[in-house]
Every structure is written in structure tokens, then in C-alpha cells.
Amino acid sequence: MTPQLEATPRESASRWRIDATDIARIAVFAAITAVLGLPGGFAVFGSVPITAQTLGVMLAGAVLGAWRGALSMLVFLALVALGLPLLAGGHGGIGVFAGPTAGYLVGWVVGAFVVGAIVHAGRRRLTWLRTSVGVVVGGILVVYAIGVPVSAFVLRLPLGQTILQSLVFVPGDLVKAVIAVVITMTLVRAYPRAFRSR
Fold first, then answer.
1. What is the CATH number of domain 18-195?
2. Which residues contact 87 (CB under 8 A, 6 or more apart)?
3. Which of the residue ranges 76-85, 115-124, 160-169 has the most confident prediction, judged by mean pLDDT?
4. How many Å apart are CA 42 and CA 159, to the nearest integer?
5. Which pLDDT band holds residue 78 (cuts at 50, 70, 90)?
6. What angle do CA 122, 124, 130 make, to 5 degrees?
7. Is 165 exposed, middle or buried (0-12, 13-18, 19+ CB in 10 A)?
8. What is the rounded distance in angstroms from the CA atom of residue 168 to the CA atom of residue 184?
9. Looking at residues 55-75, what average pLDDT do you find?
10. How far is it, in rounded angstroms, from Cα 160 to Cα 96?
11. 50 φ/ψ angles, rounded to the nearest 5 degrees
């Protein structure tokens, strides 16, 4: 059997330490998520808005890792709560956290964490398979698992009906997942410093 190597206290502490470079990287991905909302949404099958901002969630987790990816989403949502119109369609303010999309916004934080946890599992070299699994599980399944029930509760709709209605988002999210994986794997080869050792 291969012995399991335990992280030293110094290595464990480095996972939690955030320096100026980390702060800058967290801010960059919060800004990327905001920029992805500038085009607004577009309707699919009538009136269902599709936006690109979940691509920012996927990329934040895949590039920054679990905690830093989640922090970048927390920074973004804090700016939204302060009233900045950073959500698709120019929405912002504390009120959005009481609306039908509130669960999805919380899901962005948890989703970015899960993406990072899977993609960087064991601090190993990134692979296409693990990155794909991480992006789909964290960036789609986790976000839906939190967003759909909250949306059903706020809108007072049956959960089953809300799940069926949310299926229209899946094709677009799968496209964003492919884009996120390609960007991540291209970046890790072209600019590995973006994935600096943590």
C-alpha cells in the first residue's frame, strides 16, 4: 500500500492564508462575473432569461480553488447587496436576496467552492476529466440544488413544476461548462502562474 502523506502544519496554514496577490485575483474574478452580466439576458422559449454569469462562477472555482473561488463570489454578492447593478439586466440591491433568484445567488458561492474542491482535489495536477466533473457538479448541479427549491418557495410553485421549468437552462449551462473547462485547461498550460501554489 502507498503511504498517505499528511500535510504539514505550514502547508495546511497556507491554504487559509490570503495575501495581496490572492486579494487581487479574488477581485479579478468578481469583476469577471460582473462583466459577464453586462450583455444582460436573452429569452429562450418565450420568456426564460439566460445569462453568462454562471460561467464566472465556474471559472472562479476552477482557477482560484475552493475557498478563494467562494470568496470571489462573496465579494461580488456583497457589491450587489450594496446596490451596484452588477446582475444581468442591471439588477442590484439587497432586495434581490429576497426574490426568486436568491437561492441561485447563494448557490454561486457554494458552487464555486465545490468546483474548486473537485478540480484541485489532493492538490494534484489539473486534468480534463476532473475539471469537467468539478465544473458540472459545482457549477450546475449544486447551483440548481440550492436555487430551484428556493425559487419554488418564493414563487409558491410546486417543486416538480419548478424543476421542469428550470430544465430550459440546462443546455446553456452545459455550453458554459464546456467553455469553462476549455479556458481552464488552456490557461493552466499557457499561464500556469494563474494557478499559483497555495
1. 1.10.1760.20
2. 37, 53, 80, 96
3. 76-85
4. 24
5. very high
6. 90
7. middle
8. 26
9. 97
10. 23
11. -115, 130
